[in-house]
Amino acid sequence: MKVVNAVGRRKAAIARIYVKEGSGVITINKRELKDYFPQSGLQYIVMQPLTTLNAEGTYDINVNLDGGGITGQAEALRLAISRALVKIDEESKPALKAEGFMTRDSRVVERKKPGQPKARKRFQFSKR
User: Fold this and answer.
1) Quick check: is 121 in a domain?
2) What global pTM score does this model have?
3) What string of H, E and C letters represents the secondary structure of the chain?
4) Rounded distance, CA 33 to CA 105, Å?
5) Number of structural domains found in the chain
6) Is 119 within the bounds of a domain?
7) Which pLDDT tens digits describe the chain residue by residue (128 residues)?
8) Domain membership flag for residue 9
9) Which structural domain range is residue 86 located in?
10) Which CATH number belongs to the domain containing residue 56 in this structure?
């Protein structure tokens, strides 16, 4: 089987992945999944698309993760894995779409405005 690549983004995180048939090894920035994401909740987020399709031990996934925080990176990786699985097998798209794994979460941090301490917070108003 040829190598399939996909990209996932969330907030400031970008996940570029390369998927090929194998034994189920996930390598993130040359580290194991359990080393890169020690929290079980983040490991669960990453594995959700594979678990949905019962493909946990089917593919080797090599990941380049960049930017953002750990939660954004985990969710970007989930989107990238979902997109790659759909490239491999088009019939898996409805199952992944029903779980919400095919949607790019476009929410990002609102920019800070000039003359204010934060994006929406204002300096205290003084009448006198």
Assistant:
1) no
2) 0.91
3) CCCEEEEEEECCEEEEEEEEECCCCEEECCEEHHHHCCCHHHHHHHHHHHHHCCCCCCEEEEEEEECCCHHHHHHHHHHHHHHHHHHHCHHHHHHHHHHCCCCCCCCCCCCCCCCCCCCCCCCCCCCC
4) 23
5) 1
6) no
7) 689 999 999 999 999 999 999 999 999 999 999 999 999 999 999 999 999 999 988 999 999 999 999 999 999 999 999 999 999 999 999 999 999 999 999 999 999 999 999 999 999 999 98
8) yes
9) 4-99
10) 3.30.230.10
Which amino acid type is present at position 7? V
First to last CA, the chain: 74
| Tokens matching residue 88 | 């491999």
Q: Flag whether 104 is in a domain.
A: no
The C-alpha atoms of residue 50 and residue 14 are separated, in whole angstroms, by 19
